[in-house]
Write a structure and sequence with these properties.
Elements lengths: L1 H6 L24 H15 L1 H42 L7 H13 L2 H25 L16
């Protein structure tokens, strides 16, 4: 019975307000065990029905964040990495003014702090999904690829 509740979608998807979701972050010092404890505490605090809606909303947010990270990575590759690789392949140096310009372009696309925060949120959401999968021992529909993409 418990497993069937997880497979059902919320009755009214349009009523799901993603702006009210509270997302955590998973810095390097956060352990998987602490995520498990938060997960169990949240289940007891909000109840099964609301918890199911939260898990579904987190899945949507995770998909959005992964898509956004992929788009930003492509943009960084096009505007910063590829020109540096072409310049290096032509035998030119990538230090000095060229490097400063590339760092400026990189900062315009997304600041390092924003990239770190986004990666920490993605890691937190992926850890929660992994724990949910282990806890319920059920395969989530279309498991998301949560592997870390290389960041610059």
């Amino acid at each position: 019975m418990f497993g069937r509740l997880w497979l059902r979608r919320p009755a009214c998807l349009s009523a799901l307000d993603l702006s009210k979701m509270v997302l955590g972050r998973m810095p390097a010092e956060t352990t998987f065990e602490s995520i498990k404890q938060e997960f169990k505490q949240e289940l007891h605090r909000v109840g099964l029905k609301r918890f199911q809606e939260n898990i579904h909303a987190e899945k949507l947010i995770l998909e959005q964040l992964l898509r956004q990270r992929e788009e930003l990575t492509k943009k960084i590759d096009e505007e910063c990495l590829n020109p540096a690789l072409r310049r290096c392949a032509n035998g030119h140096d990538v230090k000095g003014l060229f490097w400063s310009n590339m760092q400026g372009n990189l900062a315009k696309i997304q600041s390092k702090k924003e990239r770190v925060e986004m990666d920490e949120m993605i890691d937190w959401l992926c850890a929660r999904r992994r724990f949910l999968k282990e806890w319920n021992n059920l395969s989530l529909d279309k498991e998301l690829n949560c592997s870390a993409l290389p960041t610059l």
